[in-house]
Design a protein that fits this description.
The complex is a heterodimer of chains A (about 425) and B (about 325).
Chain A (H helix, E strand, L loop, with lengths): L2 H40 L2 H35 L1 H35 L6 H30 L4 E4 L2 E4 L2 H5 L5 H28 L5 H36 L9 H14 L9 H16 L2 H4 L7 H5 L1 H9 L1 H16 L4 E3 L3 E2 H4 L5 H32 L25
Helix pairs in contact in A: 1-2, 1-4, 1-6, 1-13, 1-15, 2-3, 2-15, 3-4, 4-6, 6-7, 6-12, 7-9, 9-13
Chain B lengths: L1 H28 L5 H12 L3 H18 L1 H10 L1 H20 L6 H30 L19 H25 L2 H31 L1 H6 L3 H23 L3 H23 L2 E3 L9 E2 H4 L3 H28 L13
Antiparallel strand pairs in B: 1-2
Helix pairs in contact in B: 1-3, 1-6, 1-7, 1-11, 3-4, 5-6, 6-7, 7-8, 7-11, 8-10, 10-11
Chain lengths: ~425, ~325
């Protein structure tokens, strides 16, 4: 096994695990913002309980999102030093902006949100959650700016074999960006909505206490996911035009454009196999299949009338059993986008084999096995905990539990006295 | 422009070592046999700051990638085992702290606490070794790549790693002396004072090994700055001990924090104008200016960072202010 293959496998593993958690993060935080805002506006304790219950699941899920996110960031330098060497001037900028604008603030806000219950004013506490949500979307945006640049490098010029930034605006208007960002964000909403609907469905099937609570979150989850699946489909199909125009080889086939491009690459970079592995098309095909299947979510919406969806019970089972589908679909979609870029790390600019670090294969193999086992174990542990907390119900989540009353001085002593 | 970004990189990495340093110190001190309640109390003291601390590393890495892409690739790939080890440590701590209280079984929690302890020690050890790797030079070749990773395996890297572990432990104990309830703080304050001589010994060992190493002597561009490092570290540790003895844990934390920021500052200054000094080919050494991204990239990032920096520091300061003071029975418990 050579370093290139091992480094690619490691990237695929880490990215996939990371993606499974961040889509839930973005999806759930959007719904949480709605719930906590409703609580602050109406004062109805139902919304507080919903925020605490779903917030607890959100916070558990966030743990692996941040852990795998840190690995992702380091991985570029560890395994792909050629990427920083040749295109770092351009590709590094959106990633740097993402860490400062989004990641840094998101975690700072979230820490205060978790510990701010009963300590901060309701308005400030709500504003923190809005901050978490806005920075989460900003994070997705800048990561997609960086990724879109790899799909379709723009706004640069090559001097002495190294890319230099010439037009940052071009990165933001990249034809590969807009629809893809919409697609990813609606997929996150779909996953968040489906997770909420499925967990609620389980509680309603088992007739656990808190019928009213889970009835509400079932409705929120179902309506969200129905709206989201239509957006997913729309943004998905809307990508074929712009992406096909800038990446003619991506979706296979022998179009005249792709043949012309391959001929051009052959003269510039020498002969080679410039068609992406068939895995990209497999991913795309099955993702679209799942997308159409989930379109049936709309058929369940009329059953919300007079709670027929709960009374009939079998629709609840359908929702529960469909929960893995959006997760599988986001991975397939990611495979299609990333594998379809091959054999380039930056399409038509930098071949993947030139980007890999000059480190020995045994070292990368050790790293691949070590990090895959570590992150895999942590991911499974995290899902087990999520399932356990989801099952436990909304009686008394640790998140936002009121502290015991105590007679203590209200003003803490100064730290530097 | 290069210098400003280099300083900013230093600020964020030093900020990370100072802030996450007490996370790791508290993590290692979970081993001090205070029982389940005592361990939970220590994690509650970290509480709201924990998530905001580790992201300083994320920001430092972002700046490294955006403003010094060449350095990012060569440093991380060239010091692979140290970086990967630190990364494993960071992940074990972040996951361990956030998940340890989710199971209700105390035995499972104790297992998670061991994960946090190991992760904390590993992270401190590997960051210390990475700073040592910079100070002892790397086999940077004419093609711009670092040859192999065996250059890391030196007594100096090991000694520096251990010194970092000791510094972090003192820092963590001092943080607990500031944050825990008065009774528990007195106990951990004594631990902190007892740890200071250990840290002094570890710093002294690293200094002796460093002075004896020809690689370190050759790589350091400003010997006076390098000599200043152990002197200032010792001064900071003694100041912390004095402040702890006078029950001034706030000032003690300032001193131990300085002890964690100083290595970053002085390693950067001692190597200036280089950032990677080659041990094999003096012409291959990488200067800060050569490692920096080209001017348009730095200009763009400058316009982003300028308005953003006050916001980043402001929200962090808000977190410290809102949750200041000792933890008591009313402190929110979550970790």
């Amino acid at each position: 096994m050579d370093t290139l293959l091992l480094a690619r496998l490691q990237f695929a593993t880490t990215t996939s695990i990371h993606f499974l958690f961040v889509v839930v993060t973005i999806g759930l935080v959007t719904l949480l913002v709605g719930m906590q805002t409703a609580w602050v506006l109406t004062g109805n304790p139902k919304w507080e309980r919903l925020t605490r219950y779903w917030g607890q699941l959100y916070v558990i899920n966030y743990v692996l999102g941040i852990a795998t996110g840190i690995v992702m960031e380091f991985q570029f330098g560890l395994n792909w030093s050629g990427l920083s060497r040749y295109v770092g001037n351009v590709f590094g900028a959106p990633l740097a902006i993402e860490t400062l604008v989004a990641f840094f603030l998101e975690s700072t806000f979230l820490g205060m949100w978790i510990f701010g219950w009963h300590r901060l004013g309701k308005g400030v506490h709500l504003a923190l959650l809005w901050g978490v949500a806005i920075t989460a979307y900003a994070s997705a945006f800048w990561i997609m700016v960086a990724n879109s640049w790899l799909q379709h490098p723009v706004g640069y010029e090559v001097r002495d074999g190294i890319a230099h930034l010439t037009d940052f605006g071009a990165l933001l208007t990249n034809p590969s960006l807009g629809m893809a960002f919409g697609h990813v964000v609606s997929a996150a909403l779909l996953v968040g909505g489906m997770l909420m609907a499925a967990v609620s469905a389980w509680h309603l099937i088992r007739r656990t206490p808190d019928f009213a609570l889970f009835r509400t979150s079932l409705r929120i989850g179902l309506v969200t996911s129905a709206l989201a699946i239509s957006l997913v489909q729309g943004f998905g199909f809307a990508q074929f035009g712009p992406v096909g125009a800038v990446q003619p080889t991506k979706f296979g086939g022998d179009s005249p454009e792709s043949q012309a491009l391959i001929a051009e690459w052959t003269t510039r970079f020498g002969p080679g196999d410039y068609t992406p592995p068939v895995l990209a098309s497999v991913g795309l095909g099955f993702m679209i299949l799942i997308g159409f299947t989930l379109g049936c979510l709309w058929l369940l919406l009329p059953l919300l009338f007079r709670d027929w969806i709960i009374r009939l019970r079998f629709p609840l089972w359908l929702i529960l059993l469909a929960l893995p589908l959006p997760f599988v679909a986001v991975i397939l979609g990611w495979i299609s986008r990333e594998v379809g870029r091959q054999p380039w790390v930056a399409y038509g600019l930098l071949p993947t084999e030139q980007a890999v670090s000059p480190v020995s294969a045994p070292l990368v193999l050790t790293s691949l096995i070590g990090f895959s086992l570590l992150l895999g174990t942590l991911a499974v542990t995290n899902w087990v905990l999520l399932a356990r907390y989801a099952r436990r119900g909304a009686a008394d989540p640790a998140l936002g539990r009121p502290p015991a009353p105590l007679d203590e001085p209200a003003h803490p002593e100064p730290a530097l006295s | 422009m290069d210098l400003a970004w280099y300083a900013l990189l230093g600020l964020f990495f030093a900020g990370y070592l100072v802030l996450a340093g007490y996370d790791y110190g508290v993590g290692m001190l979970l081993a001090r046999g205070v029982g389940p309640a005592g361990r939970r109390e220590a994690l509650t003291a970290l509480g709201p700051f924990f998530l905001g601390n580790e992201v300083w590393l994320v920001a430092a890495m972002g700046i490294l990638f955006g403003a010094f892409p060449l350095l990012e690739g060569e440093l991380l790939a060239g010091c692979y085992p140290a970086v990967a080890g630190a990364l494993v440590g960071v992940i074990l701590v972040t996951v361990g702290v956030q998940l340890r209280s989710r199971p209700s079984d105390e035995r499972v929690r104790a297992r998670w606490d061991r994960v946090v302890m190991i992760g904390s020690a590993l992270a401190a050890l590997c960051w210390g070794a990475l700073l040592a790797a910079l100070l002892q030079g790397v086999p940077l070749q004419a093609d711009g790549h670092i040859a192999g990773v065996t250059h890391l395996a030196t007594p100096f890297a090991a000694a520096a790693g251990l010194a970092m572990v000791a510094l972090v432990a003192v820092h963590g104990a001092t943080f607990l002396a500031l944050r825990l309830s008065a009774e528990a703080a007195a106990v951990v304050g004594r631990t902190a004072r007892r740890l200071v001589p250990v840290a002094l010994a570890a710093v002294a060992l690293a200094t002796v090994v460093g002075v004896l190493s020809t690689r370190v002597r050759d790589a350091v561009q400003r010997p006076a700055v390098a000599v200043l490092l152990p002197v200032l570290l010792a001064a900071a540790l003694l100041a912390a001990r004095a402040a702890l003895a006078r029950r001034r844990p706030g000032w003690a934390l300032v001193a131990t924090g300085a002890a964690l920021a100083l290595p970053v500052l002085l390693v950067g200054a001692a190597l200036w104008p280089y950032v990677l000094v080659s041990t094999t080919d003096p012409d291959a050494s990488l200067t800060v200016a050569d490692a920096a991204a080209s001017a348009p990239t730095l200009r763009l990032l400058g316009w982003v960072a300028l308005p953003l920096l006050p916001a980043l520091l402001g929200f962090q300061a808000m977190c410290w202010w809102v949750f200041r003071g000792r933890t008591d029975g009313r402190a929110p418990v979550y970790w």
